[in-house]
What we know:
Layout lengths: L9 H11 L3 E2 L1 E6 L15 E6 L2 E6 L2 E8 L8 H9 L1 E6 L5 H6 L8 H5 L3 E3 L6 E3 L4 E12 L3 E13 L4 E2 L2 E2 L7 E3 L5 E3 L12
Antiparallel strand pairs: 1-13, 2-3, 2-6, 4-5, 5-10, 6-9, 7-8, 9-10, 11-12, 13-14
Amino acid sequence: MYIDPDRIDKAAAYRLLISLLIPRPIAWVGSRSAPGGDPADPEGPGVDNLAPFSFFMGVSAEPPLIAISVARGREGRLKDTARNILQTGVFSVSMVERPHLEPMHRTGADWPGPEFDAVGVPRAPCARVACPRVADARVALECTLHQATDLEAAHLLIGRVVAFHIDDALYKDGAVDLSGYRPVARLGGASYATLGEIIDLPRVRL
């Protein structure tokens, strides 16, 4: 079958793309609006936000960079995550493991207040950036905005990792130990997956 993306609508293109780009890691992004962003508290520090994004990838190790893509919302409006990051220049990424699957999924809804409170997700302050992270996430990253590209329908946001949070029990030989790590991946439609068979292939050196 041959499909011309210019001949199908946006929804069809999205459905096809997310069904074939699998599995995708999930960035559970914590951010905070600029000071005074809460109409009920104009002198306050801002409103916390938590939302999942699966258009998420590593970009570079030197410096350590990751990227998320945040699509625009209804009528082309910026979603809270994109607006917060563009205004404050910081965000966190908590990695989603199996115990977090249901609460992570629920934070994707359009809650009227902070998702941390609405869904009951515990938050913790970041060490180097002014926004929250998921308190019981065993792996989390603190990021500063390195580069933002407006793609019209979405923003590509590249973050520089300025701090890693890794549970001691998961850290082994300078890496996250897969024997105890239970990450969740996004599939197409309403489907998710966990780690299945793990295949080790040493690097080919010629």
